[in-house]
Amino acid sequence: MTPGHVHFIAIAGTGMGSLAGLLKARGIKVTGSDENLYPPMSTALERWGISVFQGFAPEHLQGDRPDLIVIGNAVRPTNPEAQAALQSGVRCLSFPDALHELAIAGKHSVVVAGTHGKTTTTSLVATLLLETGRDPSLLVGGIAENFGGSFREGKGPHFVVEGDEYDTAFFDKTPKFLHYGARTAVITSVEFDHADIYRDLDHVKEAFRALLARMPKDGTLVAAIDHAGVRDVIEKPPCRIIPYGVDEPGKSGKGPRTGLRASALEVTPEGTRFRIARDGTPQGTALVPLDGRHNVENAVAALAVVEALGVPLGEAIAALPAFRGVKRRQEVRGQARGIVVLDDFAHHPTAVRETVAAVRARYTGHRLVAVFEPRTNTSRRKVFQADYAAAFQGADLVVVAAVPDVPLYSATGEVTERFSAEELARDLSRRGTPARAIEGTDAIVEWLCGELVPGDVVLAMSNGAFGGFWDKLLSRLGGDRPAQ
Prior knowledge:
The protein is of the alpha/beta class. It folds into 3 domains: 5-98, Rossmann fold; 106-322, Mur-like, catalytic domain (UDP-N-acetylmuramoyl-L-alanine:D-glutamate ligase), CATH 3.40.1190; 331-477, Protein-Tyrosine Phosphatase, Chain A (Alpha-Beta Complex). Helix content is 29%, strand content 26%. The strands form 4 sheets. Strands 8-7-9-6-12-13-14-15-16-17 form a 10-stranded mixed beta sheet, sandwiched between helices. Strands 18-19-23-20-21-22 form a 6-stranded mixed beta sheet, sandwiched between helices. The protein has a 5-stranded parallel beta sheet with strand order 3-2-1-4-5, sandwiched between helices. It starts with a strand and ends in a 7-residue tail after the last helix.
């Protein structure tokens, strides 16, 4: 039975907010609560006409009683509104279970998983299906420009969803991606992340092996075979595997050169052009309107997925230039005084490295100023301290936001060693890249305004609001209005 009123606790998460928007578009009454609201989800919820309570309180469940309560994975057991929900007698579901029950069930579930590239690859798959006339449904953890948002309800047979390995809820510690009933799945990469819930890389691999084990025998796994972590988890596949990857000059790679592969990457004004081959046999030339080797890899994954779903490869290649990207992925936020300000979601050192390399290749001849906010539970630990020092190669100047001394959630033991912005700045400087650690967004903006000159490119990397850094910098610099 379809609920008439659904209430979301922690509605502003990308997945939670997207499902809320999808249900609202169906005509279902949707309400929610959260304490950390910031764009793009805060503005999206407002645009969709969804009422959001600030903070958490049992009173939010009183009055107009909901038929279903969805509890997000950011909610802790001590949350007063969640406690009241579980005691209310109203049916409560985790976000993944609600998504599957209310949206995915009855469709061919296409789940895009991996440490990196999930949002872009999910959006690419849905775009290619749409452009080739397949009318897909979509839910993705970002704002996909081709869809004007983070969800879509189509009439076609496929539901494309971003699958996260983070746990489901405080009352269900299984990975979210296990709940989506994948028939076609993608694994883009497997690296250590989410140190608050995973002990080590082997623990992460266990989650991905569990995803693989649940695949039906007639299912399909599209796997980034060049990545050692991916090769480890797909050793005993229960279903068909389609490998994919990118050949790089001077790098032979350790994985087999089979499946769908890209080569001869070329940066052009329109994006990145590359050759595509299957098992060594040329299939043509493709263009993706994105920068960076990692985005070519994402594009090849999407091509492999839609071909497995019945789209002729030539049709998919022809549709690829229609992709318009995802907000907060190398997004130009604006220009002022000849200075370009970019916004990217990168936070893991691998993502930082790939993003810096992509922007460096795009803006050849410009000074690249990288501004990094360590915000996640993992990035604020010591675990990647040395890796970050190597990740900024290609930047000409680096600013690292100092990490506030606040408690870190951990299900894996006490956090004894924390990331040091000051140590990273020293390490980068010793490597020949000038770097500074600065505390507070306003102080970073103030310092940069005294350093930036026309022609500079500022690449800000954070998975959060970063205190409104982009708009503050553009406003302080004056000049062109920020890009919307």
